[in-house]
Fold this protein.
Amino acid sequence: MFERKAYQKLLDFKKDNGKYALLIEGARRVGKSTLAEEFAKREYRSYILVNFSQDLSLATDPFQFLPDLDYFFSALSANYNTELFPRESLIIFDEVQEFPLARSYIKYLVKDGRYDFIETGSLISIHKKTNTQFIPSEEDAFTLHPMDFEEFLWARGKKILADFVRQCFENKRSLGPALHKQAIQEYRHYLVTGGMPQVVAAFLDNPFHFVADRQKQQILRLYRQDMAKLDDEFGLKAGDIFDTAASNLGLVNSRFRVSSLRGASDSTIRMTFKALEDSQIFHRAYDLTELNVNMKRLRDDNCFKLYFSDTGLLISDIYNDQEGGGSDIYRSIISDTLSTNQGYIYENAVAQAFASSGRRLYYYAFRDDSKHRYELDFLLRRGKKLMPIEVKSTEAYSLSSLKRAMKEHSSILVSPTVLWTKDSKKEEGITYLPLYMAGLLD
């Protein structure tokens, strides 16, 4: 069990003394069940993990006694040979989407007040199984994302380095050559490994990345199977888009346009992208029709980008034609000797960092009078202003889009920032931050 920032959300839930149930959403293999069970072990006198995806008979049998809660809890306790203690026990409904009836009873179980309840599941599966977005009023929810860079450093036993990076960010100081070199090297290890807990564990056991890649390929196969099931059931194109998403990010124009996609109706295509979003496998970044703090209202729903929720999976999907085939590429990324452009890798990592902190993703493409196209990679809200973010991966780069935007939209844009591979500095009104600080821009 790795130290996760989300653990604090579970502690806050426990402090509320059973007033609501907590649903942990997230992509498959992101660590939802592990987090819930570790929390139960540490914080409660006893717990029962009811896994609806394994022995369904064992898990569902007690529900026959409802609405008699006394018999329900007695049967549950007997089935799992675990004594339950009022206000000292936790019941976990794992993969709750496999048995929607359990979620429908949450209202009564919480109102009873004897025990605490946590549910885990993926949003896409919950919507598919229940065909509704009904959320019990007695339920709160949060999304568990892959491990971020700070959590990766903790897992690597480098919490002191993580704390120093945060301290330098907060005080607007550079790390200095030696520590920056160490931090950017760790960041490249993080990019290649990704933040899926089982992949990080495999990497820690054996730091040769082709070993960890076997774990990533397993996860990618699982995701493809999920997409195929969606396509079979709903006639979507999720599998096709999943197969092209990684290569599409490497293109100069990486946007998806609903009008340019062929072979399905607009409604089916929109449903497909919504399903991909709900799966938490991808994050969607929307183009803005104009620069304004009300970005959700001004987003272009017909034009967007797809970023992988885990950059390690993106790299593995792009560079592995067969199992273990990407080890040389991984070493090149870590040593910064990869001959091809890595910009889309770093851009995906920044999107992942922003999405993990709960931000919606937006970018802005615009043209000047001569029809030359410019683009701001990301925009973050800063009060009544917007902060433009550019991501740069090489020594040779242009800031024409950033400078043009600041000149034409100075009334709405503030604190222009470049995320790059070098240490922090400020020059000509532009803040330069190392890429590993992206997750701290909150």
Notes: Residues 343 and 393 are 5 Å apart (CA to CA). The longest strand covers residues 299-308. The chain has a mean pLDDT of 88.
